[in-house]
UniProtKB/TrEMBL annotation:
Protein name as catalogued: Glycoside hydrolase family 19 catalytic domain-containing protein
Record bears the keyword Transmembrane: yes
Pfam families: Glyco_hydro_19
CDD domains: chitinase_GH19 (cd00325)
Organism: Ceratopteris richardii (Triangle waterfern)
Organism lineage: Eukaryota, Viridiplantae, Streptophyta, Embryophyta, Tracheophyta
Keywords for the protein's UniProt record, in alphabetical order: Membrane, Transmembrane, Transmembrane helix
Residue intervals of the Glycoside hydrolase family 19 catalytic domain: 94-322
Length: 342
């Protein structure tokens, strides 16, 4: 806790009157909730004398309250109580870390060389950090959620293979859109009608398919993706935002979001457990692509997602041992079919 109170006072021409030439209070405080970095900034210059008196009293009272809270917080920490300081993603996931997870993305053989970068990811993530994206819980939980999210991104955009240089999990973000799609991915929808001649094939970090999905994601991001789905292949920040929106939002009624699953906010019902549906990385696979990869044993695509997840946990310093139970979904009942768009 650092609290700096700077008051500079000078006499004006009238006796008994004081003029603040500068009043500055900066607070950096620890907290155990996810709004752990609160900054209070008060600046006053050349105000009338009576306002200076009021401002001085306010500053003094605020300062005393904040200092007392600081002492209480530090006392709790010294007593051994849990004291967390949630970090922003940029604070624990550097550009070097991004390169470590996606080292081959800019090679000439990659189909999106030069497109994906750490800066655009951080800019996109900032939109969702207040909602808890990788800012929920302690630092380990934050890194686990990040590893889970990026594992899905890597699986969806990889061009790696089993004996690829640097291993099969080093080739994420090789693509930014589906190449040579054999369909326009257009289906009749009153709410999100297709624009004639536009293809709704997969684009982005966690590819969006079909007109109704472009419409839903676009509405949330306040972008007209129904008319301009190509933006997800030309704007990396927007492409990451679309992926994070998919992660943070429940895709269907009465289903949790991937974020809620990985942060422990979702509790399965009795019916869920009877269908082998439990919290864990496997449930996020079921949410995102369960109708293809879940419910029929060791699907190779499911295994690839899990393998990316375990690899990224290692690279982020969390370790595979902290992956949690139920990383796969081979035994889970499928949550939905592609024909269920409600």
């Amino acid at each position: 806790m650092r609290c700096l109170l700077k008051l500079q006072l000078s006499h004006d021409s009238a006796p008994q009157h004081f003029l603040f030439t500068e009043s500055l209070l900066i607070l950096e405080k620890n907290s155990t909730n996810q709004s752990s970095r609160n900054v209070l900034f008060i600046l006053a210059t050349k105000s009338p004398p009576f306002m200076m008196k009021i401002t001085g009293v306010i500053l003094l009272l605020v300062g005393l309250v904040l200092v007392s809270r600081a002492w209480a917080f530090n006392a709790n920490c010294k007593e051994g109580k849990k004291c967390e300081r949630n970090m922003t993603i940029a604070q624990f996931f550097s550009a070097e870390d991004f390169d470590t997870l996606f080292p081959q993305r800019n090679l000439p053989v990659a189909h999106a060389a030069g497109f994906w970068n750490h800066y655009d990811f951080i800019q996109a993530a900032a939109m969702f950090e207040p909602l808890g994206f990788c800012t929920t819980g302690d630092l380990m939980m934050q890194k686990i959620e990040l590893a889970a999210f990026l594992a899905h991104v890597a699986h969806e955009t990889t061009c790696g293979w089993s004996v690829a240089p640097k291993g099969p999990f080093a080739w994420g973000l090789c693509y930014k859109e589906e190449l040579s799609p054999d369909s326009l991915y257009c289906e009749s929808s009153d709410e999100y009608p297709c624009v004639p001649g536009i293809s709704y094939h997969g684009r982005g970090a966690m590819p969006v398919y079909w007109n109704y999905n472009y419409g839903k994601v676009g509405n949330y991001l306040k972008k007209d993706l129904l008319h301009r789905p190509d933006w997800l292949a030309t704007n990396a920040t927007l492409a990451f935002q679309a992926a994070i929106a998919t992660w943070m939002l429940p895709m269907r009624p009465k289903q949790p979001s991937c974020h809620d699953v990985m942060t422990g906010k979702w509790v399965p019902t009795k019916n869920d457990t009877l269908n082998s549906i439990y919290p864990g990385f496997g449930m996020t696979i079921n949410i995102l692509n369960g109708f293809v990869e879940c419910g029929h044993g060791d699907d190779i695509r499911m295994i690839d997602r899990v393998s990316h997840y375990l690899e990224f946990l290692e690279l982020l310093g969390v370790g595979r041992d902290n992956a949690g139970p139920y990383t796969g979904c081979g035994l889970q009942k499928v949550l939905y079919t592609p024909f269920d768009k409600s």
